[in-house]
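Example for tutorial group B:
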């Protein structure tokens, strides 16, 4: 072994050991599970390179999980193995190939079918029923020996004390005397339970948990079982361990066994697919990627298994993992990195938001350099200081956020690095205030504050507002700096000679921008009202208001009582709208703008299924022509585009879909089929 590789291996092992301790003993992981799995995978491949046998690597990794002495030990009759991981579809294909190769090599008479189900991010637990009565519950521990938590699961949701097999009509199961049936699954905190629980903890100044998995682990391994019972834990079954003296045909496949479990009172994993081929499995993985956020439980992957138990047994297991199953790991949503600084951003309505400047870190393939800290209360609660290591989360379209500070308790922390929200606006230097009952601190200078003016312009030209293509943030900043625009109507006075003088502007780009400004002159009342940027007036609210108007100008003197009659409009919106038009500057600006634009009739229906959504089509559609599909989107309140970008809400995928579909997956845009698209549309609006 070369000394460089030797050192690399030694370092890697010590890093893994440290994280095992943080994860298992302290319930305070410093890295995401995904990163941990990758470290382990790296060790395996390094050892392979060094010709170190797999069994030695496994020995090096060791038990990982040291038990707390106070719990009784339980030896598992059948080891609770963990699964091998797949990080890509290529890895998944290798798994399918290994299975078919092995079937061929051993001349087995099987054509494999697969099931796939979400992999819950919880704590693995085994429940043992003797003569159909719950006798023992144990944690996974190191896979061979776990902890006895029988008392702790006794009042847990999803744990039947007795299995009523006799009255089970769907499954005629033969049970012999002293039968043993071991059910395996995960103990989890449902997302909604987790939120409620953490709020409760906060109120009573108790420890907050970083995520549902840590909450589940911390709650389950309580020496005082009554503490566990007071926590909203749920057991979800996903398979069998030891089976002795139980016979039945329904136990021939994984899926039918799960259906049996459900019929005797267990909760089972949903969504799932059964009897699938590799292509179905991959489709399922893609679907899960899209709906991950909306699932009731945190997941970290998809488990793919061979359905047939006989084939499972024939393929068997290595020391570490079964050969008949694999865990496809979904890209992590969190990562740990360092805070380089804390900036304060000023929003459209003057809200001061602390933002952590980060050492760039990749989450799910996207580089993250900034994450919001929301407001000064959150900042204080999380105790984030410059130089801290923090956990950052990026999920879906949500702005990345700092979740928590990691492992700073034993580090000497410099008081000077702690951060206080400024009393004066970082943009205009004006006074800030924080109103009673609000979490936000605000600059009260309105559009006289450069930051607020800039944000107001960005909103005004945005797609759902005046939709001026090609007028991005950089350009707006430049126009303001060069004093070419100061209020919204100045945009309509720009000419190409002025524009050509700007950086990176030629005659062509100047003309393009002039063209899109011209195009934006024709708009709807709702989009215009929304573009004005009145607080609390979103596009839907603007539509509701404009539906009641004959002429836009009516709004200037609309009696409050009439506003109050509008569906969905509450007192906050009413006072916001009425105050806006009471201010002389706003009224004059609106009148000047009305001279520049004209209204077309609102074509989209109110509350159409694609209202405010942007849809992209790719590939060949089965039943619809591309143009008529786009027309359907428009009729249902949406817009359509040719390319997938940040503003895309749906990507409808036909046959031979190419790069657009890939881009959509990468950007976590919701991908749907033509059938799903048609199903979404109201039958009356075709
Ligand atoms: Zn300001």
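The residue assignment follows.
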């Amino acid at each position: 072994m070369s000394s460089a590789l030797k050192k690399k291996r030694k370092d890697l092992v010590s890093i893994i050991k440290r994280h095992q301790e943080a994860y298992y003993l302290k319930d305070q992981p410093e890295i995401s599970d995904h990163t941990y799995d990758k470290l382990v995978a790296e060790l395996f491949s390094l050892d392979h390179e060094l010709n170190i046998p797999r069994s030695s690597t496994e020995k090096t990794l060791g038990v990982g999980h040291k038990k707390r002495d106070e719990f009784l030990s339980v030896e598992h009759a059948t080891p609770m193995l963990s699964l091998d991981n797949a990080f890509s579809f290529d890895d998944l294909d290798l798994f399918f190939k290994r299975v078919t190769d092995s079937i061929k090599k051993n001349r087995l008479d099987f054509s494999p079918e697969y099931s796939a189900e979400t992999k819950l991010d919880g704590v693995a637990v085994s429940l043992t029923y003797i003569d159909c009565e719950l006798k023992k519950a144990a944690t996974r521990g190191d896979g061979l020996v776990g902890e006895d938590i029988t008392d702790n699961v006794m009042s847990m949701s999803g744990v039947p004390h007795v299995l009523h097999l006799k009255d089970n009509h769907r499954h005629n199961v033969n049970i012999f005397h002293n039968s043993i049936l071991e059910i395996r699954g995960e103990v989890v905190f449902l997302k909604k339970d987790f939120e409620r629980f953490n709020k409760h903890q906060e109120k009573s100044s108790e420890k907050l948990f970083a995520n549902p998995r840590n909450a589940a682990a911390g709650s389950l391994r309580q020496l005082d079982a009554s503490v566990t019972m007071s926590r909203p834990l749920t057991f979800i079954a996903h398979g069998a361990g030891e089976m002795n003296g139980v016979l039945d045909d329904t136990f021939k496949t994984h899926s039918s066994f799960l259906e049996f479990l459900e019929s005797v009172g267990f909760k089972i994993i949903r969504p799932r697919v059964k009897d699938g081929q590799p292509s179905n499995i991959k489709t399922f993985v893609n679907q899960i990627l899209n709906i991950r956020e909306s699932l009731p439980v945190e997941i970290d992957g998809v488990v793919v298994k061979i359905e047939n138990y006989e084939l499972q047994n024939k393929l068997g297991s290595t020391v570490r993992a079964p050969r008949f199953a694999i865990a496809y790991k979904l890209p992590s949503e969190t990562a740990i990195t360092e805070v380089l600084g804390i900036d304060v951003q000023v929003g459209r309505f003057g809200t001061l938001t602390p933002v952590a400047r980060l050492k760039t870190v990749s989450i799910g393939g996207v580089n993250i350099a900034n994450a919001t800290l929301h407001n000064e209360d959150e900042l204080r609660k999380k105790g984030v200081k410059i130089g801290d290591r923090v956990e950052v989360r990026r999920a879906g379209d949500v702005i990345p956020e700092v979740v928590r500070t990691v492992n700073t308790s034993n580090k000497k922390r410099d008081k000077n690095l702690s951060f206080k929200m400024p009393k004066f606006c970082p943009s205009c230097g004006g006074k800030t205030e924080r109103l009673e009952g609000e979490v936000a601190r605000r600059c009260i200078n309105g559009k006289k504050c450069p930051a607020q003016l800039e944000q107001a312009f960005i909103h005004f030209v945005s797609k759902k507002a005046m939709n001026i293509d090609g007028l991005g943030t950089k350009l707006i900043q430049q126009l303001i700096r060069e004093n070419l625009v100061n209020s919204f109507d100045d945009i309509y006075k720009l000419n190409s000679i002025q524009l050509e003088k700007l950086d990176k502007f030629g005659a062509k780009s100047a003309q393009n921008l002039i063209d899109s400004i011209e195009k934006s002159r024709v708009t709807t009342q709702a989009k215009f009202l929304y573009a004005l940027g009145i607080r609390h007036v979103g596009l839907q609210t603007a539509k509701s208001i404009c539906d009641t108007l004959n002429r836009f100008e009516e709004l200037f003197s609309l009696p409050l009582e009439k506003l109050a009659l509008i569906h969905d409009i509450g007192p906050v919106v009413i006072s916001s709208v009425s105050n806006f038009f009471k201010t002389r500057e706003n009224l004059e600006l609106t009148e000047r703008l009305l001279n520049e634009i004209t209204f077309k009739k609102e074509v989209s229906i109110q509350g159409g299924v694609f209202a405010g959504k942007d849809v992209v089509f790719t590939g060949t559609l089965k039943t619809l022509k591309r143009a008529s599909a786009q027309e359907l989107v428009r009729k249902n309140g949406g817009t359509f585009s040719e390319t997938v970008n940040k503003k895309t809400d749906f990507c409808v995928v036909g046959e031979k879909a190419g790069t657009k579909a890939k881009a959509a997956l990468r950007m976590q845009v919701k991908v749907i089929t033509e059938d799903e698209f048609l199903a979404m549309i109201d039958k009356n609006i075709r």
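The longest strand covers residues 174-188. Compare this with the pattern of hydrophobic and polar residues in the output above.
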